[in-house]
Amino acid sequence: MSHDPDPWQPVADAGWRPFLHWETLSASPLLVGVHGWLLSGRLWEPLAAALEPRWQFWAPDLPGFGRSPRPRGLQPTLVSYGRWLADAVRERAGDRPVLLLGHSLGGSLVLHAAPHLGEQLLGVVQVAAGGGVYQPRPFRMVRGGGAAFLRWRPSWLAQLPGTEAIRSPLVAELRAARGLLACSMQRGAVRQLPAIAAQLQVPSLWISGSKDSVMEPRYVRHLAGYCGGSQVQELEGEGHLPMRTAPDRVAALIETWIEDQSLAKPFS
Questions:
Q1: Which partner for 130 in 43, 91, 220, 257 could form a disulfide, CB atoms 3.0-4.6 Å apart?
Q2: Helices 174-184 and 187-198: angle between axes, nearest 10 degrees
Q3: What per-residue confidence (pLDDT) applies to 24?
Q4: Structure pTM?
């Protein structure tokens, strides 16, 4: 008779929900990177390279961004995109467990997708993602600046050789870009974020850059504070894109956290 531990026994210090020990998992989890506003899946390439081949990483283009068209029925809202993300993850991962990584606005989409993934979701990593505090004047300035960029952006630049690195903001679908920006800065959506974060039933790691002027560390800590079992790490000297400027440091934080939480086992 087997004397292995009960696979549904809660992991230490994660009593708010029982987790599978990594020894019982039939496959290593799929890490899924969710990019922020106007960006694309290629945002995660340096981090994916730092994590592979130990971990398999998938970073899709959100519909309307990068090279992914937006289906006609997909509304440009956080709720709709969160549901799309969950469906896309299930289709890609099959029966494998998943870890969601969100950047900036992508972090909000991760929170909206999490409830739809149920027991398949092992944990969440948020990079430069936070908020939950409504600020009328700064938000008006960001919305105005974003709208002006979308109106006057030189989209023709995307057709020139050697401009792949700046292509995503130039070709993002107008309705998707406008809709997600406006939705994410509505009073109701902003004030709803803490309640959504509080419903997260898996461990979460929140990574901020000490020099991030887009999502200041205090706002990352604020939203993380609503999550049971959350851990916050601040990268000294980094800005809003630490997965690109410091991929090895971010990878080390993620792998240490996965190990400390006993969430999963890498391929090698």
A1: 220
A2: 70
A3: 36
A4: 0.88
